[in-house]
Amino acid sequence: MPRNTDPSLHGFERAREYKRALNAAKLERMFAKPFVAGLSGHIDGIYAMGKNPWDLDSVLTGSGDGEVRLWSLSSQETVWRAAEAHRGAAKGVCYVPGGNTDRFLSVGADKLAKVWSRTESAYMHDGVTPEPVATYQGKSAFSSVAHHRNRPMFATGANSVEIWDVNRSEPVTSLAWGADSVNAVRMNQTEVNVLASCGTDRSIILYDLRTSSPLAKLVMTLSTNAIAWNPVEAFTFATASEDHNAYIFDMRKMDHASTVLKDHVSAVMDIDYAPTGQELVTGAYDRSVRLWDFSKGHSRDIYTTKRMQRVFCVAYTMDNKYVLSGSDDSNLRIWRARASERAGAQSQRERGAVEYADKLKDRYKYVPEVRKVLRQRNIPKGIKSAQRTKNLMLTSRKNKEENKRKHSKPGSMPRVPERNKPILGVTHK
Amino acid sequence: MSTAESSNKGGAFAKGNVEETAASYSDRKEKVQVKSKKAIHKVQHEQRRREQAILDAARAEVLMTEEAGYLEAEGMERTYRIKQRDLKEHLDISSADKIFDLDLQEFGPYSMDYTRNGKFLLLGGRKGHLATMDWRNGNLTCEFHVRETIRDVAWLHNESLFAVAQKKYAYIYDHTGAEVHCLQKHVEPTALGFLPYHFLLASTGNTGKVVYQDVTEGSVAGEHRTGYGECHVLKVNPYNAVVNLGHSNGIVSMWAPKQAQPLAKILCHQGPVQAMAIDRTGTYMATSGQDGRLKIWDIRNFKQLHEYKTTRPAHSLDISQQGLLAAGYGANVTIWKDALADKVKKPYMQRTVGGTSISDVMFVPYDDVLGYGTDKGISSIVIPGSGEPNFDAYVANPFQTKKQRQEAEVKSLLDKLAPDTIQLDPNFIGRLDPRTAVQRQREAVARQQQEYTENKASGQYLDNTVRNRTRGRNSTAKRYKRKRQSNIMDLKKLQEMELLEKRMRDNENKKRKVPEAEKGALSKFYEQKRKSN
Questions:
Q1: Which residues in chain B have their CB less than 8 angstroms from residue A16's CB?
Q2: Domain boundaries, chain B
Q3: DSSP A391
Q4: B84 with B351: CB under 8 angstroms?
Q5: Which of A160, B252, B340, B467 has its CA at a distance of 20 to 30 angstroms from the CA of residue B529?
Q6: Sorted alphabetically, which keywords does the UniProt record give (chain B) (predicted)?
Q7: Distance between terminal CA atoms of chain A?
Q8: In degrees, to the nearest 5, what angle opens at C-alpha B209 toward C-alphas B206 and B210?
Q9: Which distant-in-sequence residues (6+ apart) come within 8 Å of A231 by Cβ?
Q10: Cβ contacts of B280 on chain A, cutoff 8 Å
């Protein structure tokens, strides 16, 4: 097609571009259908989830009644299950790393850690629980499990962090700094000898596996529910806190959080990084899943459904396209990571149009009309009213503090940055 | 006004000064007090991209296949002496075919309009004759008679619809000639104009109103009384979609659909404005008046540049895409070249038609052809160098297929602009307002205060207009509102504040103890008054 770039031929260039940006924003919201599928099967709520870094298709879940299931995401069904894997809740599940392994671990409140194999502990039919490949007896109820990236060892969280060698029936090491129970334990998958745990004593502790000793301890104002290591930057990790926020920390400098992710109105229960390390997903007690950019303080999207209850575990799939959530209502849900994106191959022309629309939206995102369209979400009444209440409380607290500051000696009440507020102290060993 | 930008437009894409343009762009980089490295980097990146885009656009001009060429005279020859029949001998067959006359003796004088891609011609005879055709190959698409006066005709966004200003109302017909709409809001229209990016049909008429109608949804986007009586001259400024009206008292007024007052007014002539034309960059306007003058204006700053004389007042004017000015007066059509920015002494081309007078002239977009309507039909002549040689297929395509037309229609409807985006400066959209929110509010309050004092001085607002309402004043909602709006100043609030102050002053004066010396002989009354209170 012949083109001529003479501006006098292209009238109202700016106004038309703005109009196109507005249309693009509207279309994005029109096509935003984030919910892909809800996978039912569990009888109790889902409290543990483990993704397989080598396989896009499969994901593990553990439920409150001790059942462990292996799902195929593409066919949207259970492919393996152990109905009574644990007495009491299955508190943690994880894959044994390695491209061709079919083993995975589960830990329960029954003080047992079990290794399963997809092929060896074959699932026969309903009513028959497959046999684990190996069983380890712990001293107290387990809360979490994480496997080492390349060595046959795994860590469990109970009253203390215990490191297990798969060939031994007793833990190799027991790590503790202060005596309290552990909420979650995560192995760093890049800097493989670093381990993070968080406990009910509001602490986050980093351990070094080479010396079997703690590195640093960070004490927050409220306890942390989950930890996720950044898969790209080995030294950053994100935490899901009881104080409704999620925090991103640089382990080299933990006296402040590098980003505070604020939007949830209830305790954040789980957090996971996208494989790119650029985005995060959180699940919260307010029955919502939120998606975040690592550098922005507020979420870019919120996912809810009428039937979804408290979200206890979330995961970003390894293709960066979907997020998974497990909640109290016993369903595993699959969501799109970008709500209006469509799966499948795109033609050159289609991709061009999508890229142009993205660029336009990016360019005009601060213009009020476009911003309103892009940001508006219909969120449940419960969350909305909680937001209102929370906002009111926070503003009045802020006003009170400002009033106090006004009437006290200048400099006696310094302003504390939001990034420092939740941190009570950091101790290095 | 956007003088700087508009003047820069032509230069930025001229072939010769690519390097200068880029250099001047980088000179404009100002030192901005931004702390964030990220933001600085972003701005710099954007600036580099812009510079690159200008260079790329200039380089892409190499790809343009056509070049504009003018008639050039040698020695004693003069271009304005060259006749069409001389020209015809030297033209190729397809171009020579563009010189023709349509002999339509009965229903003239004719007004005409070409579609935006120049492919179709619409002609309307004063006495009711309407026809549309693909004029290059002479294919008539429709022809009919409306049996009443036709004053003006205009194509809408493409060749499928056109509007006609008839005796009582304006009508819209489709390409088969079927009447689609009767626009009863346009009463006795005399001139029509179509705003292609806004999908608005503008008309003016004997009622002295300017009416805008949205042709996609049928609603009236604006209807304003000009206050200057009946009006016959309407032209749309293609640069900013402002409608210019030429009035019988010599004023040219500029209108936007959402503003009841004209955006600007210029006194152009001592007597009625006869015709008007605006160039496509929105820089120049040509007007002709009954006073026999043909004036060229810079409409960015509303100043007259120079004027030409025609033997009789020019009845119709047009400016081509390449900036050629055509004027039809009496039985003559005269075309000037390079006549807008500077005054030229001799015309470029000329044609005299015997025994009739010119009613309408119009250049064909993307072609070197001028069409004119007379009492006895319409004619088409070749004016070398008048049209834009390189078309953009996504803007207007003279070789458009049916499928392309349909697709372009949908795209342009998606990009349809709202009527309230029409301003004198079309680039106001997307421009950053550098003031902070506080500054903006402060300015607004200052403006209101000034307005208040001015109005008060002129006695427009009286103190007693403020009622002292007591009932229902202290509801929770009102208290909340009062608290929230403590910093919002409006006229009413200022008045109330002043009144309150005055009352307080009065009360103070009442309570004031009057010293004995001031009382004098009237001390008795002071006592009494206090008692009666």
A1: 197, 415, 417
A2: 79-421, 432-462, 471-516
A3: H
A4: yes
A5: B467
A6: Nucleus, Repeat, rRNA processing, WD repeat
A7: 69
A8: 120
A9: A189, A190, A273, A275, A277
A10: 8-9
Q: Which two tokens stand for residue B387?
A: 């049209």
CA B293/CA B287 separation, integer angstroms: 8
CB A243 within 8 A of CB A203: no
The total of other beta-carbon atoms located within 10 Å of residue A168's CB is 10
Distance CA A203, CA A220 (A): 6
> Do residues B210 and B255 lie in contact, with contact meaning Cβ atoms separated by under 8 Å?
yes
- Which chain A residues have a beta carbon less than 8 Å from that of B388? 4, 6, 9
CA distances (Å), B294 to each of A69, A77, A120, in order?
88, 82, 98
Q: If one looks up domain B79-421 in CATH, what number appears?
A: 2.130.10.10
> In this structure, what DSSP letter does residue B30 have?
-
Residue at token pair 């028959």: A128
φ/ψ of B402, rounded to 5, equals: -60, -45
Query: A203: which strand partners?
Result: A219
- B304-318 pLDDT, tens digit each: 999 998 889 999 999
Who among A9, A20, A364 is closest to B395 (CB)?
A9
Burial of A261 (0-12, 13-18, 19+ CB in 10 A): buried
Amino acid at A353: A
Phi, psi (degrees; rounded to nearest 5) at A399: -60, -45
- Cα within 13 Å of Cα(A296), Cβ side: 13
Please give the average per-residue pLDDT across B328-357, as a whole number.
92
* Residues 412-431 (B) with a CB less than 8 A from some CB of A: 414-417, 421, 426-427, 429-430
**How many residues are given for chain A?**
429
Query: How many angstroms separate the CA atoms of A239 and B424, rounded?
Result: 54
Nearest to B390 by CA among B63, B119, B64: B64
Contacts of B394 in chain A (CB under 8 A): 1, 3
Model confidence over B255-274: pLDDT tens digits? 999 999 999 999 999 999 99
Mean pLDDT value across residues B178-207: 96
- Which of A71, A127, A34, A39 is closest to A330 using CA atoms? A39
The Cα A350–Cα B178 span in angstroms is 39
The A289-293 sheet, strands edge to edge: A268-273, A279-284, A289-293, A301-303
ipTM: 0.77
CA distance A280 to A303: 13
With CA atoms as reference, report the closest residue to A77 among A66, A86, A68, A69: A69
What is the Cα gyration radius of chain B?
A: 31
Cis check for the bond before B109: say yes or no (omega within 30 of 0).
yes
| Continuous segment of H or E residues that includes residue A169 | none
- Contact predicate A334/A39, CB 8 Å: yes
Of the two residues B507 and B237, the one the predictor is more confident about is B237
Chain B residues 155-194 with a CB less than 8 Å from chain A: none
User: What's the residue count for chain B?
Assistant: 533
